Amino acid sequence: NGGIGYVLSMTGWCFILWLWTPLYADMLRHVVVVPLMAVGGFTNAAVAIANSPTAWFVVVLATCAFVTLVIAGGMKTYARVQKICFWTGNLGLLAVLILLFTGNPESFPSRFDQGFADFFGVQNAYASIRTAAQDLGPTTPLWGGGFGAIMLLLPFLAFFNLWPNWGATLYGEIKGSQDVKKNIAGMTYSLLGTTALAILFLLAIDRAVGFDFFMESNAVFWQHRWDPSSSPLILPVWPYPVFFALFGLTSPVLQGLIILAMSAWFFGWAGTIYLSSTRILFSASFDRLLPEAVARISPRTRTPHIALLIMVIPGIIVSVFYIWDFFSFKSLTIVSTLVIAITFLGTSLAATVLPFTRKEMYKASPISKFALGPIPLVSVFGAAFSGFLLFLLYQWFFDPHELYGISYRNTTSLIFIGLLYLLALVLYLGMRWYRTRGGIDVNKIYGEIPVE
Questions:
Q1: Residue 177: per-residue pLDDT
Q2: Three-state secondary structure along the chain?
Q3: What pLDDT shows up at residue 79?
């Protein structure tokens, strides 16, 4: 249904990405700016940047400037940036993995203490973390735990593993995008690659640091950051896992090169914050459900620059509310992280019913060749993924074990997200009414997928 698809897409790929602007910037300062300042010997500046709202907002502006630059340059430009960043990041990750796997676990506590003292002026960090963690109780094991524990961990893992196919909305601009095999391969390999690297990295952390300490250090940092009154300030900066590998090195130059290489992961990925959104806005405008100006593109780069501004400007405004927590804005946005799952659920349900509701369209598609007996394979996979997403949404929304902190109990956050969906619905109905008055039948636009 055009209306449902419009509301899900506009909320899940556009409105909600405004909220990710301060989060992307937070990643930039914690994995790039703060580590580089620390390695460069600017201890006070590193700690200040990690804790200053003003510094965070400056990084927001830098993030938006970089993202605007690479997106405005067009898909070819961003593809080149991604390729460079991908291979540079892989070199950095290889160096980190080698250092972790060859490190001496017995000497890690002393190296960690020395590293945090040199980089951030924190004394006796290792013992302080272990002591504080006893009260916080992070107990997720790396091994074992039973099937039930694994299922309850999945809603956490899905937050990162729903992202590898975030760029699927861009496939229409990719060469050979109408080749089903290429699309399936691209999605499959990205998921398998991400999962394999995550497992390898966790094994390396466990080998060099101990998985329990890895969990404890994160618990100590995030508990204080989200609720300063509940725990003392022990770590003024995020315990970036790359530090665990670098603290054994004596060369600041080598440390800096590895951090620079690892920072390439952020710069190669950062454009995704608005790239898909601009294409959704362009499509909605092309379908006459947004003003025509939104679909206006640069003649040179073929980039929808008006759509880009629609994402960047509200993103900066939202960042102000988020960073300084005006009107308790942070608590309003907590549930927003599951909106991507709701969007994917709409896609999965659409895929499940497509062979039965649009039979001619389905038969004309290359995917009609794939079936499990009489049942279309797209329906099998669509139903399976829909079931998985419904399980995730149940855990997030109802949270019977009170594990995730984004449930219906946060009523203000649910109301906020509901208002975003309502805004998309009002926009759809308003544009539909306006186009009908102008003699355009929106039903015909959404009746069939247009020929490219």
A1: 61
A2: CHHHHHHHHHHHHHHHHHHHHHHHHHHHHHHHHHHHHHHCCCHHHHHHHHHCHHHHHHHHHHHHHHHHHHHHCCHHHHHHHHHHHHHHHHHHHHHHHHHHHHCCHHHHHHHHHHHHHHHHCCCCHHHHHHHHHHHHCCCCCCCCCHHHHHHHHHHHHHHHHCCCCHHHHHHHHCCCCCCHHHHHHHHHHHHHHHHHHHHHHHHHHHHHCCHHHHHHHHHHHHHHHHCHHHCCCCCCCCCCHHHHHHCCCCCHHHHHHHHHHHHHHHHHHCCHHHHHHHHHHHHHHHCCCCCHHHHCCCCCCCCCHHHHHHHHHHHHHHHHHHHCCHHHHHHHCHHHHHHHHHHHHHHHHHHHHHHHHCHHHHHCCHHHHCEECCEEHHHHHHHHHHHHHHHHHHHHHHCCCCCCCCCCCCHHHHHHHHHHHHHHHHHHHHHHHHHHHCCCCHHHHCCCCCCC
A3: 87
Nearest to 340 by CA among 163, 119, 200: 163
Residue whose token pair is 């006893």? 134
pLDDT score recorded for residue 171: 67
Q: What is the pLDDT of residue 141?
A: 83
Asked if residues 367 and 355 have their Cβ atoms less than 8 Å apart, the reply is: no
Of residues 27, 8, 5, 31, the one with CA closest to residue 338: 8
CA distance 7 to 428: 7
Residues sharing a CB contact under 8 Å with residue 38, sequence separation 6 or more, in sequence order = 46, 119, 120, 237
Task: Measure the CA–CA gap between 403 and 389, rounded to whole angstroms.
Answer: 17
pLDDT of residue 315: 96
Q: Averaged in consecutive runs of 10 residues, what is the pLDDT profile of the chain (452 residues)? A: 89 92 96 96 96 97 96 88 96 97 94 96 96 83 86 85 70 66 82 91 95 94 90 93 93 96 95 89 90 90 91 96 91 80 92 92 88 94 96 92 86 90 96 92 72 50
Specify the pLDDT at position 303: 87
Q: How far apart are CA 24 and CA 29, in angstroms?
A: 9
pLDDT at 176: 62
